[in-house]
Amino acid sequence: MAHSTSVQIIVRSLRDLGVAVIFGIVGIPVVEIAEEAINLGIKFIGFRNEQAAGYAATVYGYLTGKPGVCLVVGGPGILHAVPGGAFQELDAISFLSPHTKTAFRPPALDAIPDAIRNAYCSVWYGRPGPSFVNLPADIIQGADSSSTAIGRTSLVSLPPKSSADETALFKAAQLLKLPSLLSSSLGKALPTPVPLSP
């Protein structure tokens, strides 16, 4: 008895579930899945971007009442396919937390100013990076019914200055302006550095 490949097992599983159409983009390594799907009689509809493929799979699901299948490569392919997957109720906090400095959802209207201020501070202070504030429809379309007025967002103070010695930083910058070492190894001249003033 011949052993099955992973690709064959994947596609047979889809076929056995009654999948008749796969939407997606072929790329390594998923191109093998698309080819095997075609070999087993599953129609593969290729797209030029993952988002369109995701939308097509979603529409197929709505129209047929069966799950739509979207095939994309890992990494950015998955990220690009997400909008097409009707993820309006996606737990965006869990999804984005590993990729942002902060990600949170204000629990009520009166918490919006602090949430936005905290996200702003997080982006501005320390290591550069994005922050995310999830503002779902019920928050955006809500009206303040409390007897207490929601206050203004307080200004954010300037981020703390670097504790690095400015003289040492200037000397390091001057060393970086020495293109002769690099240009000989790169085989071409580097652009003339812009002079820094102390």
Task: Supply database-style keywords.
198 residues; 3-stranded parallel sheet; two-stranded parallel ribbon; mainly alpha
Describe the structure.
Helix content is 41%, strand content 9%. Helix 1 (6-16) packs across helix 2 (31-39). It is mostly helical and 198 residues long. The protein has 9 helices and 5 strands. Strand 1, helix 2 (31-39) and strand 2 form a beta-alpha-beta unit. It has helices spanning 6-16, 31-39, 50-64, 76-81, 92-96, 112-124, 137-140, 166-176, 179-186, and strands at residues 21-24, 43-46, 69-71, 102-104, 131-133.
Compile the SSE list and pairings.
Elements: H1 6-16, E1 21-24, H2 31-39, E2 43-46, H3 50-64, E3 69-71, H4 76-81, H5 92-96, E4 102-104, H6 112-124, E5 131-133, H7 137-140, H8 166-176, H9 179-186
Parallel strand pairs: 1-2, 1-3, 4-5
Helix pairs in contact: 1-2
